[in-house]
């Protein structure tokens, strides 16, 4: 460190000056420090007993009775003090960095000008009346957020870990750069508000602190990443659960629709064109029940094999787990309604009675009776479009099935 | 508070925190307010004295004119010492009065107080009763100071004899500290102490 005397050899002197650029503001060397204010000597005076003081400091001190030297108690009169222009020049040659270097100020200052510079430094932290709001703990790293109360601050600290880490790593990079440019006194800049250290120890412990801080933060990241992964798994499980619940919900609603089922036939246009391409393409609705333990049916929609311009809507009996408890063939009333989305009077409604002789109403042997019952030419496709049955590319088909 | 006083205390405070003496637990300072005007000091009783093993708490008040005037310091922990009032804790030490020098710091003040515990100045007393005992019956002084250190400063040396005598007085309805002061002042002679207390 820069403790060499003014009479040291040339190379030593240059070392002394170089390092004082970095830490001069923090810790004036003993020969530049006023023993009264403990700051840089301002307008230095030298006593006959060989001690230096700021002019203001020693003059205030000597106003007392029996004036003496504050350091060694030697009697002092005005005649025993002289301006120390040598030291004044030495101090004027010193350069120190602005304490706001961590925020980006690159000014090189005379140590005596630091205080006045800090008042006008464009990188100074924004002023804040005391006790008005809480500052983020990372304010020294550049986080400017303020809070009304502690819980808010804690919430912020929890949520912005990533942001704070970025700030620290930025500051760290800056410090590394300034280290590369020739000085070993990195961390002192981060620790600007510390008092001058009298015994001039290099600040290894400070850079150790930063390393420790980084280490702690990295550990926190690992923990948080693990937590995120755990949460992802939990979310995936829940999503699955929600899906299966939705599925069973829809099953329940199909079972409990009491034979009145609304089929939202979505994506009508593309389905029509698929069916036009190949008449064997047909669409089936999910199976629904006439009562919770009743008959199971579904709706079929396809393009009429006899008339390409019509759609066919038929009803198929489906196999259900309690078919054995029911009377076969199914007998009842079936109503098919094509719902007009705006004008209920345009609904196309057809009611039909079952015919016990038909295969369609026999107890299903397969999953679904291959034969259905309904209208092979229920409506003209052209009309569905032109009369406005297709709303939002949906066609709504309502089927009511009531056993009699 | 004058800027220079606050600035200096700020710097000194950090200096004390980093000092060797703090590392050895010999001294300690603590800030009591944001304006750096009130601090709490602690010094360890020096070895080979009756104060060994005790911790003594100090009240430190920094005047606006600091460092041109000394800080006001007094013992909060009760102590039996010729230069410290056993009643108020006021300290008679030249550097806290006319011998103050602006180059002195909190650290040097605390170290001077520690030195005062090692080397009393009975000819410049703050507490005349203690000083008299110190000069005329030093053995009794040592016992008393050690007992006070044990009771008030957490020192390790329990004096059963002293404790018994205090209990005797306490049984008569005398408050414990009052009993201790009376006994200490009369070289632990129960009769004279009782006489003084009930006169």
TrEMBL record, chain A:
Pfam families: TRAF-mep_MATH, zf-C3HC4. It comes from Cryptolaemus montrouzieri. The keyword Zinc-finger applies. InterPro entries: MATH/TRAF_dom, TNF_rcpt-assoc_TRAF_met, TRAF-like, TRAF1-6_MATH_dom, Ubox_domain, Znf_C3HC4_RING-type, Znf_RING, Znf_RING/FYVE/PHD. It is found in: Cytoplasm. This is TNF receptor-associated factor 6. The keyword Iron does not apply. Coiled coil: none annotated. GO terms for cellular component: cytoplasm; nucleus. One of its GO terms (molecular function) is zinc ion binding. SMART domains: RING, Ubox. PROSITE patterns: MATH, ZF_RING_1, ZF_RING_2. Residues 34-73 form the RING-type domain. The lineage of its organism: Eukaryota, Metazoa, Ecdysozoa, Arthropoda, Hexapoda. Residues 258-401 form the MATH domain. Keywords: Cytoplasm, Metal-binding, Zinc, Zinc-finger. Its main location: cytoplasm.
UniProtKB/TrEMBL annotation, chain B:
Residues 4-154 form the UBC core domain. InterPro entries: UBA, UBA-like_sf, UBC, UBCD4_UBA, UBQ-conjugating_AS, UBQ-conjugating_enzyme/RWD. It is an enzyme of class 2 (transferase). SMART domains: UBA, UBCc. The active site is at residue 92. It holds the Pfam family UQ_con. Keywords: ATP-binding, Nucleotide-binding, Transferase, Ubl conjugation pathway. GO terms for molecular function: ATP binding; ubiquitin conjugating enzyme activity. Residues 157-199 form the UBA domain. It comes from the Eukaryota. Its EC number is 2.3.2.23. Belongs to the ubiquitin-conjugating enzyme family. This is E2 ubiquitin-conjugating enzyme.
């Amino acid at each position: 460190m820069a403790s060499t005397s003014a009479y040291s050899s040339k190379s030593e002197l240059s070392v002394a000056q170089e390092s004082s650029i970095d830490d001069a503001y923090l810790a004036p060397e003993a020969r530049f420090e006023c023993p009264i204010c403990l700051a840089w000597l301002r307008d230095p005076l030298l006593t006959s007993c060989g001690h230096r003081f700021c002019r203001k400091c020693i003059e205030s001190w000597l106003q007392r009775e029996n004036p003496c030297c504050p350091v060694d108690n030697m009697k002092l009169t005005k005649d025993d003090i002289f301006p120390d222009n040598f030291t004044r020049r030495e101090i004027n040659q010193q350069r120190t960095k602005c304490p706001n270097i961590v925020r980006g100020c690159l000014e090189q200052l005379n140590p005596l000008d630091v205080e006045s510079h800090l008042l006008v430094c464009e990188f100074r932290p924004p002023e804040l009346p005391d006790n008005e709001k809480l500052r983020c703990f990372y304010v020294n790293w550049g986080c400017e957020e303020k809070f009304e109360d502690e819980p808010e601050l804690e919430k912020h600290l929890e949520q912005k870990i990533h942001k704070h880490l970025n700030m620290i790593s930025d500051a760290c990079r800056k410090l590394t750069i300034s280290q590369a440019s020739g000085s070993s006194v990195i961390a002192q800049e981060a620790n600007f508000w510390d008092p001058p250290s009298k015994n001039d120890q290099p600040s290894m412990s400070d850079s150790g602190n930063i390393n420790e801080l980084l280490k702690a933060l990295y550990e926190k990241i690992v923990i948080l990443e693990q937590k995120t992964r755990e949460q992802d798994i939990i979310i995936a499980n829940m999503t699955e659960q929600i899906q299966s619940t939705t599925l069973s919900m829809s099953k329940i609603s199909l079972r409990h629709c009491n034979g009145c089922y609304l089929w939202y036939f979505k994506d009508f246009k593309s389905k029509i064109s698929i069916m036009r391409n190949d008449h064997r393409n047909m669409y089936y609705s999910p199976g629904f029940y006439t009562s919770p333990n009743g008959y199971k049916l579904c709706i079929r929609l396809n393009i009429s094999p006899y008339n390409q311009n019509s759609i066919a809507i038929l009803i198929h009996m489906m196999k259900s787990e309690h078919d054995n408890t029911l009377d076969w063939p199914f007998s009842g009333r079936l109503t098919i309604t094509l719902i007009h989305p705006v004008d209920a009077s345009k609904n196309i409604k057809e009611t039909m009675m079952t015919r016990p002789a038909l295969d369609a109403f026999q107890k299903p042997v397969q999953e679904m009776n291959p034969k259905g019952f309904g209208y092979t030419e229920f409506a003209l496709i052209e009309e569905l479009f032109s009369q406005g049955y297709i709303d939002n590319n949906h066609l709504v088909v309502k089927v009511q099935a009531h056993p009699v | 508070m004058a800027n220079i006083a606050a600035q200096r205390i700020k710097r000194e405070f950090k200096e004390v925190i980093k000092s060797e003496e703090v590392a050895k637990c010999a001294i300690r300072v603590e800030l009591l307010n944001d304006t750096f005007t009130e601090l709490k000091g602690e010094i360890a009783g020096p070895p080979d004295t009756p104060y060994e093993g005790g911790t003594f708490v100090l009240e430190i008040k920094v005047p606006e004119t600091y460092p041109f005037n000394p800080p006001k310091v007094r013992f909060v922990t009760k102590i039996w010492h010729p230069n410290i009032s056993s009643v108020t804790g006021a300290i008679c030490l030249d550097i806290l009065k006319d011998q103050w020098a602006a180059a002195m710091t909190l650290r040097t003040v605390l170290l001077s107080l520690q030195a005062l515990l090692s080397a009393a100045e009975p000819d410049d007393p703050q507490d005349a009763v203690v000083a008299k005992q110190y000069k005329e019956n030093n053995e009794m002084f040592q016992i008393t100071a050690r007992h006070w250190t044990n009771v008030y400063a957490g020192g390790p040396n329990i004096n059963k004899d002293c404790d018994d005598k205090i209990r005797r007085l306490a049984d008569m309805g005398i408050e414990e500290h009052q009993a201790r002061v009376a006994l200490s002042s009369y070289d632990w002679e129960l009769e004279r102490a009782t006489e003084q207390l009930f006169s």
